[in-house]
Amino acid sequence: MTTLADKNVLLGVTGGIAAYKTPELVRRLRDAGASVRVVMTPGAQAFISPLTLQAVSGHRVHADLLDAEAEAGMGHIELARWADELVIAPATAHAIARLAHGFADDLLATLVLATEARIWVAPAMNRVMWASRPVLDNCQRLQTLGMRLLGPASGSQACGEVGEGRMLEPDEIVAALGDHPRPFLGHRFVVTAGPTHEALDPVRFLGNRSSGRMGFAVAEALAAAGADVDLVAGPVNLTTPPGVTRCDVLTARDMHREVMARIEGATGFIGVAAVADYRPDSVAEHKIKKSEGELALRLVPNPDILADVARHSARPALVMGFAAETRDLANAARDKLARKQLDLIAANLVGEGLAFDCADNALEVFSATGHWSLPEQPKAPLARALVEIMVDCMASKGG
Ligand code: C5P
What angle is formed at CA 186 by the lines to CA 185 and CA 191, rounded to 5 degrees? Predict the structure, then answer.
């Protein structure tokens, strides 16, 4: 059975002896239905020839970040976008250290930073190296960055020793990629995203800088985890992620109404939208004219969607909010968690060049008893890390 049909798999080969197994890995990936392209580090080319991997993948191997000819074909950004899955196999201790610290001085490391694909890392090294503190710390960091570790396995090693550190066999790597856990299968989630626009007159509104990208990424990650997702989106310029049902709204009151209409029977509500806390108390029928002197706006509070969902008689089992703060992040987030009766809150600092309208974000997530720090990364892997926290949170509630 083909488990990777229509998947684009980018294979990153680094310089370890297990590189000799990668032609077999490419063959198995293609047998499973994937299109495969290969990136090699200079170290990998000491173990295996690019020509071999070109022959088995059917494509020229990518090796150099500064190769003008390759960039004119499928350049590194295009390659990063092309990939659905990026598999680094074998991943040496050195490669793992570089990935953990965000290096961008060769093609593979740059692709890791530039892609929104899922990233899989198959370590391969001597057993003592594998057990060393720096390698274990770096692997842990890879996991907090949303990368998935494949193995390593135990057994006899190329160096003649026996222990943990062998690269997983090609079959095992292919099986792991094809095996998508769907922890939220059969569950429905309501997600809000984007800003709201609160009209002042027929042409003006009060709004904010939210792009909606974080909310859309959360909706996409929940759908990938098997959930049915209702996305209630403010005015944004984004395409609907696959498997997500979208409802567009403009104002906080519209968003409140559409969320409440969908909350019954939902397992979770994730309020990512930057909802306006206030709206003008009236909307001028005609465009407000300029006049001498000051113009005072009178604002009235909007309904708090998140708090209303959390207090609803049909409260979902998981209610999660977001908190955009300009200071005192942890205290403000914990206070909001308690005040709005939430299960989880994801907090970030906002301001010039931070979070809003940016491709990357960093989040501190709090529950009543837990705290997770998710370092700065693109919003897609960040959203997948959030979904894993949601899964843990539901499991600890016994749901
Ligand atoms: O209290 P604050 O507005 O900072 O809380 C932010 C969280 O509350 C976000 O999850 C946001 O989606 C939600 N919210 C809401 N309705 C409002 C205001 C905020 O759902 N009127």
Answer: 85
Q: Determine the residue type at 227.
A: A
Give per-residue pLDDT as tens, 284-316. 999 999 888 899 999 999 999 999 999 999 999
Residue 70 pLDDT exceeds 80: no
Q: Which of 115, 125, 92 is nearest to 14 (CA)?
A: 92
Top mutation candidate among 305, 334, 335, 349 for ligand 1, by most atoms within 8 Å of CB: 305
Pocket of ligand 1 (CB under 6 A): 192, 252, 271, 273, 275, 277, 302, 304-306, 321-323, 336
Domains and their CATH numbers in the chain:
8-177 (3.40.50.1950), 188-396 (3.40.50.10300)
Q: Ligand 1 centroid vs 18 CA: distance in angstroms?
A: 50
Active site residues: 159
Report d(CA 387, CA 395) in Å as an integer: 12
What is the pTM assigned to this prediction?
A: 0.70
CA angle, residues 316, 247, 263, in degrees to nearest 5: 15
Spatial contact of 209 and 351, defined as CB atoms under 8 Å apart: no
15, 46 contact by CB (below 8 A): yes
Rounded to whole angstroms, what are the CA distances from 349 to 102, 205, 242, 336? 21, 25, 29, 15
pLDDT for 1 beyond 70: no
Closest ligand 1 atom to the C-alpha of 306?
A: 20
Bridge partners, residue 233, by sequence: 193, 248
Show the tokens assigned to 16. 């370890």
pLDDT tens, position by position, 343-387: 999 998 876 666 666 778 889 999 999 999 998 888 888 999 999
Nearest CA to 12 among 43, 58, 33? 43
Q: Who contacts 28 (Cβ-Cβ below 8 Å, separation ≥6)?
A: 170, 171, 173, 174
pLDDT at 205 over 50: yes
Per-residue model confidence as pLDDT tens digits over 313-353: 999 999 999 998 888 889 999 999 999 999 999 998 876 66
**Residue indicated by tokens 């909706």:** 219
